Hints:
elongated
Amino acid sequence: xxxxxxxxxEFLATENPVVVRTHVRARARATGRELxxxxxxxxxxxxxxxxxxxxxxxxxxxxxxxxxxxGSAA
Length: 74
């Protein structure tokens, strides 16, 4: 991605693992196509540091389409 802006974040759980809903605006470097989508992430913290981040994307097909060259079957 050429642009990946975190527009807003909402912490749904603050115990380990932390659960965060993030609103993202992005632009694919290869195509210039723009996306506006939510991500849900679980974040595991160990000894005050982020140990793991697991993002869950709502619409992976839309992300694939935005990144695919024109005329491809993404």
